[in-house]
């Protein structure tokens, strides 16, 4: 890894670039410069550069701060154009999605005014269309609804490139570059930086990437006395909010340790079918272990634990 790391955040409308020294000696005469297409137009090179000394293990050290009052007038005009472009693009998105107009993916504004999270929703929508998923499916409606309610007053800052030189404790000169993490902690990433006419702000990490939503239910496929090919069928009917995707676990267990080759087939929305590729499972069951679950048993997530739905007062353990 790098001796130095950088992350960016926002506070009181200002963009803050933080430096972290992971080495065992100070980073002397650290010259840094930050670059990003919109920032490069908003600010001259001087405000985007700095010289400092960063001690080893000092934690987060502010390396750079940018604020709109020091932006160039011509840069503010570019920002206004970007915000107008975002507003115009978002106004057309739902209709273009419903009409299967994938040209939006090559629209020049696609990367310039949409965040990574927003592009993920848009890309997933058209990928699912190509796989035969109808626009009326719950997951597809979720994408459309998400992209229909976005803020049009700010544009994203997606990546900031940091170029730097410094002298390490051995006197060696280091010249390198990296992308700053999006977040105020060097161990975190996935936050989203924005800029509007009122300044810089930052969003928390997306639950899609950093904190996946917990499935609402888990169904058990318990293989007992199976000596050859076998097929099981289970009905899953969890209650989900309108427009949100359905999430669930399928837990495969057995009455003995074994190797299993399996394939899942999902039937949904009345006439839709999805078939997985075959995959291998190695199931280990210790001796003298009592399995409380039965074939087809369902678990629900309560109080941070998975519990059998028909005896939610007891914590059930299923050995796999």
Residue runs with pLDDT of under 50 for 5 or more positions: 206-212, 312-320
- CATH fold call of the largest domain: Immunoglobulin-like
Measured between the Cα atoms of the first and last residue, the distance is 36 Å
Percent in helix: 10-25%
The largest beta-sheet arranges its strands as 5-2-1-9
Tell me the domain tally. Answer: 3
The best one-word shape is flat
- Helix-and-strand structural type: alpha+beta
Specify the biggest β-sheet.
4 strands, mixed
The CATH architecture of the largest domain comes to Sandwich
User: What is Rg?
Assistant: 26 Å
Average pLDDT taken over every residue: 82
Portion in beta strands: 25-35%
Overall number of strands? 19
| CATH class term of the largest domain | Mainly Beta
How many helical stretches?
5
From the structure above, extract its key features:
320 residues, alpha+beta, Immunoglobulin-like, 3 domains, four-stranded mixed beta sheet, four-stranded antiparallel beta sheet, 19 strands
